Each structure stands twice: as structure tokens, then as C-alpha cells.
Amino acid sequence: xxxxxxxxxxxxxxxxxxxEESPDVIEALRQALAHWPPSIRQARGLAPAIRLRRRPGxxxxxxxxxxxxxxxxxxxxxxxxxxxxxxxxxxxxxxxLLGLHCASVEVDGRLVLFPEGHRAGKSTLxxxxxxxxxxxxxxxVLGLTREGEGVALGMAPRLRLPLPESxxxxxxxxxxxxxxxxxxxxxxxxPPGNGLAEHGERCAVGAxxxxxxxDRLTSPDIIRLQPGEGLLQxxxxxxxxxxxxxxxxxxxxxxxxxxxxxxxxxxxxLTAARHLGATLEGGMQxxxxxxxxxxxxxxxxxxxxxxxxxxxxxxxxxxxxxEVRTYPLGRELFLIQSGSGxxxxxxxxxxxxxxxLGQESLGGRELGELLAEYYGQPAEPVIEDxxxxxxxxxxxxxxxxxx
Length: 403
Description:
Helix content: 25-40%
Largest sheet: 9 strands, mixed
Number of strands: 24
Number of domains: 3
CATH architecture of the largest domain: 3-Layer(aba) Sandwich
Protein name: PqqD family peptide modification chaperone
């Protein structure tokens, strides 16, 4: 392709990108978006919202997400940035989809999601699953329907370079044999055949897997988690920054009520992918009977709340605030404050206390004595824990004095 200005259209977005004097970027886009195939035409009329042009020493991109522009040193870096904008625009337009930051792979006809944050190892594990013969839906972004189906965007996975020395030789060989555009920082990997789902392809979600990388492990380990762990991760790893928490809960809670949440602890990605795939094949089941750590401590998960050191007086009575919506999930409870939209998670013990306070006003001593009898523990330490826990809830406005 000769130098010049070209407009690029994509299914679901239409004419969305103008690339000027950068044929190498266009060719790299063709490879990275082979499963979301672009249509390329000579530029005409007003430019689309996303623009990229060559400049001395690299490229310059402007878009609504980058109003001040962004300098990019290589064609691969340019493709990485453009794909981020294009994927975000597609999810913004598809109002029925919730965009998730996650890797996703098809196992036994159902999707396994890895909803981890930046540099958590999800892209590496996605490529490892591809090397193990499984089909990818993506390594970083996925659309989720209200019915619990994942929707592929058709973007090739990428690895950070250089590859770690801990990678097994077969994984390194796979990443090299199917290498796409790359520079000194990133390499796109192009799964052969139908190893990457086409743009818009759907598959029902079958499991949620959180990741823990530990180089000391000699073999992978899979641990069943409370479904609340998965819900909390999905609430943090989504693109719906302006959505009301109630809308997010309506979208995600039904999913976590029926799919298992697991923790994968591993050292080497390909070994982990093979082990997890073999474990899940034919064996994905819902959360019925899932109980890990059922008798935990007394503290709720209060994200963003200040640490509380001083317990409330043991005789002071408390009731739950009315401006709080509750969402049960397994043995736990999620709370959303109507005014601020803050989300809080209560473990099994916290859920018991919340429900007791919802029936009548009770003090820390009364609650502590009830729990001490239930758990078979000395009363005074439990009373102190409950009073500290109540202080934390009072501080964030979840309970109020009932006296």
C-alpha cells in the first residue's frame, strides 16, 4: 500500500479511523484485526474522530479519548493504542453489552473469564491456552450480554517482551511461530485457523477464574472461592464508568449466582492452562454447595473506607440505614448506598449481623454474645470485634444509632 491518507471502516463502527502516510500501521492493523476485518478506502471528506499520522520519529494519534494527542514510537505501539480506542468505541455504541477487562477462552463449549487488572498475567495465560489448543475470545476485552454470553471483539492477543525465562520451551516456540506485529515492548500473537473467535461471536460464560502467580509452586493449584470474590472483581474490571451500581449489579449478579468462581495459583502459564482446561472440561457447575471460608472474621469489605481503630460502646444500639439496597450472593451480602453509590461486601458473619439489625436495634454486646455462642468462642473478644466492625459501618453510613 502506497503512502497517502486512508479511511478505515469496521463492522459495528462504520468509518472510524483515518491513517495518513503510515502504510506500515495499516498492514499491522490488518493482522491484529484479522477477525474484525477492516475495510480500507482512500480518504474522502471530513476525517473520522480517530486520526493517526506519521511524524518525525514515530506517529501521532488524536481521538476523543486522547484530546491532547499521543506520540507513539513504533507502528506496533500505534496499533496497540488504536485498538484500545476502537474497542472502547464499539462497546460504547453497543448499549446492550457491558465491557469487561478480562481474558476469555472457550473450554468445553463455554467461556472461562479471567477478570484481572493490568499486568496480572491474563494475556500470557490467554496465549498459553491458545498454545494448548483452546480457542480464544480475547486477552483483554470482552462484551457481556445480560443473558451471560460473552461477545468477542476479534482482536489478537499480545505479549509483553522480552518473554520471561520461566516460559516453557513449547510456549516460547508457539509465540514465535505465530508472531504478528511487534516491537521491543509488545508482540501480537496470531492464533492459527479458527483459534480466535470472530468479531461478534457469542458463547455462554461457564466459569470465572482469578489468578495468583507464584514462581515457588511446583504444580498448579485450583481453589474454589465464594462467588462474591468474582462479583467484586467484575465490578472493578468493567468499562461502565458512568453506570449506576444498581445497573451493574443487575447485569452481573445473575451471572455470579450460577457460575463457579475459582482461584488459579500457578508458576508456568502453559502448564497452568493445560491443568485448568483438563479440570474444567465437562465439569463446570454452578455455585450450589460452594462454601469456602464460611466462618470468617467479623469485618466487611469496605472499599475506600478509612481504617477504624476505636470500637463503639458495647451498650449502644444500632439499626441498619434505610437508604441501602441489599443484594444476596451465596452466603454473602453486597450493599449499595443509594446516595453515594458506594458498594460494600459483607461476609457470612457480617450478613448475619446485618439481618439481625434489620429486625430490631441491638448493641454490640448483644450481637457479640449471640455470635460467640454460635461460633463457640469466648464472648469478650467477639464483642470487641463486633464493636469495631459496627464502628466501621457507622463511619461509612451503613448503620445508625437506634437509641
